[in-house]
Amino acid sequence: MRSIDAADEAQLFATIDRWVEREVAPRVKEFDHADRWPAEIVEQMKELGLFGATVSPEYGGLGLPAATYAEIVMRISSVWMAITGIFNSHLMLALAIEKFGTEPQKRQWLPKLATGEIRGGLALTEPDAGTDLQALRMTARRDRGDYVINGTKTWISNGIEGHCFALLVKTNPEASPRYSGMSLFIAPKGPGFKVGRKLEKLGYKSIDSGELIFEDYRIPADHLIGEVEGRGFTQVAGGLELGRINVAARGVGIAEGALRLASTYAQMRKTFGKPIAEHQAIALKIGEMATRARAARLLTLDAAKAFDRGERCDMEAGMAKFFASEAALENSTESMRIHGAYGYSKEYDIERLYRDAPLTCIGEGTNEMQRLIIARQYMRRNGT
Ligand SMILES: Cc1cc2nc3c(=O)[nH]c(=O)nc-3n(C[C@H](O)[C@H](O)[C@H](O)COP(=O)(O)OP(=O)(O)OC[C@H]3O[C@@H](n4cnc5c(N)ncnc54)[C@H](O)[C@@H]3O)c2cc1C
User: Fold this and answer.
1) Ligand 1 mean position, distance from CA 58 (Å)
2) Model pTM greater than 0.90?
3) Which residue of 158, 176, 269, 376 has the smallest Cβ count within 10 Å?
């Protein structure tokens, strides 16, 4: 079980808060509105160790418990959620290698991933396979000591700026059940691996979402994670609990950030001779927002702590992801309304939180699917 000394944890949070306040907050509008890759901020994230946050110290990472990591994601997301995607998706790649890779694979890849020298993400989604991942079409064909990969991925975070991806493919397209023919590869950019178009989005700006095209992309067989075919789907599923805790933490950050902005604005803006916070209709909204944000935080930390204890926490992570992302959506909408016309202005921060929030309802399994997973687990555990 991972743990961290309380004083070290407090110091880490203080460092993150200082960085967010001094380096991120003053520049976020500039980057977000221009949809510009935040190169300087990425360099600072490397120095802070964020690219190795959950990688074990023996491979050069910080080895943080999930609860500490979630708290960091919440703090950053309360100001700018999008930049957490730059290291979140990257850490999912590192997790797949650390959890399921062979020892030589871990030694080869993890130290460079932990420093951010190599950055990457998780490439699962295809144009015709999102929720139903087993429908994916990308194939890897064994050719002596190599695999030859063909197909297209889409919506891949860090796809354009990143260097290396965990790539889910079919090594046996005829397999039944379908998941038993799926394998996960470590796929660095190289000949045959082309970046397609950058996808334009409502929010989640500055982090690139790209199409990745593979045409006779050839990689050595030792890039197959775990070096056994047919385990890819299980390996991806093995990262889902932490992935959902990540997204839940992003939702908490947005919900808390939107609340903070609403509360400050409502105490400053006056109508009919008094601050709008003193009108009951506004106070009721703030009361609901504060409750939602706190409930989302508690659910997320509850799931993260269960994960850190090594317990199965798919239901807890699903609940946290579902509730926190809906809280992000509701709080950002309510906060925007409390801001009146200024909530609709690009000069105020709330419009960014409002545009960023919906992604948390989609990523790492849509909220429709989360509810089905929660229901299934609840009934299984309770024998009803
Ligand atoms: C900004 C952004 C970043 C992303 N980053 C990545 C990334 O880094 N890597 C990656 O691999 N993917 C990424 N994705 C893709 C994301 O994971 C998928 O969009 C998501 O899994 C949903 O798939 P889909 O869009 O194909 O929707 P579909 O699967 O087509 O679903 C459409 C709708 O139907 C619902 N639905 C589907 N099946 C069922 C069912 N059985 N029961 C009930 N409802 C159902 C869904 O909930 C949804 O509402 C990203 C997406 C976005 C928008």
Assistant:
1) 35
2) yes
3) 176
